Amino acid sequence: MLFVPKKHKYKKHQKGKCFRKIVFKSCVLKHGQVGLKVLHFAKFNSKLLVSLYNNLKKKMKKKGKVIITIFPQTSITKKPVEVRMGKGKGNVAFWAAKVKAGSIICEISTFKINSAINVLNNIRFKLPVKTKVVIRPN
């Protein structure tokens, strides 16, 4: 079960620029009480998001609901090995989500907030980006 879009307007996307500004609109928890906030720009591929989701579900068991707030919509292309320069753009290798600094990756809604914080602290170190655990104020 990989996260891949069903429909897309363009088959191959341009690289674009990395976002140096911090985003304030998506830095608010919408669905849960506890979440993971990214501290700088990164690209998350669909395999990483699936493994993140599965690890969160396994650690939380049935204590709470896990919500992934980002989705990979950008196609990343690669040329085959030992191919000369030129001859157009390569085929789609994988799908990635461009995440801006300050945005929230995942949220957990549960009654046991301490257990959710512990789970996110454990999973935080497995990600390739610096993250921070955020709690919704009551």
Descriptive labels:
138 residues; alpha+beta; Aldehyde Oxidoreductase, domain 3; four-stranded antiparallel sheet; three-stranded antiparallel sheet; 2 helices; elongated
What does this structure look like?
- There is one protein chain.
- By secondary structure, this protein is of the alpha+beta class.
- The chain has one domain: Aldehyde Oxidoreductase, domain 3, CATH 3.90.1170.
- The protein has 2 helices and 7 strands; from the N terminus they run E-E-H-E-E-E-E-H-E.
- The strands form 2 sheets. A 4-stranded antiparallel β-sheet has the order 3-6-1-7, with helices on one face. The protein has a 3-stranded antiparallel β-sheet with strand order 2-5-4.
- Helix 1 packs antiparallel against helix 2.
- The longest helix has 15 residues.
- The protein is elongated.
- The model has no long low-confidence stretch (mean pLDDT 90).
What oligomeric state best describes the polypeptide chains here? single chain
Tell me how many strands there are.
7
Helix content bin: 10-25%
Task: Provide the CATH top-level class.
Answer: Alpha Beta
Concise account of the structure shown:
By secondary structure, this protein is of the alpha+beta class. Helices cover 20% and strands 29% of the residues. The strands form two sheets. Strands 3-6-1-7 form a four-stranded antiparallel β-sheet, covered by helices on one side. Strands 2-5-4 form a three-stranded antiparallel β-sheet.
Chain-wise SSE layout:
Layout: E1 34-38, E2 42-45, H1 46-60, E3 64-68, E4 74-78, E5 91-99, E6 104-110, H2 113-124, E7 131-135
Antiparallel strand pairs: 1-6, 1-7, 2-5, 3-6, 4-5
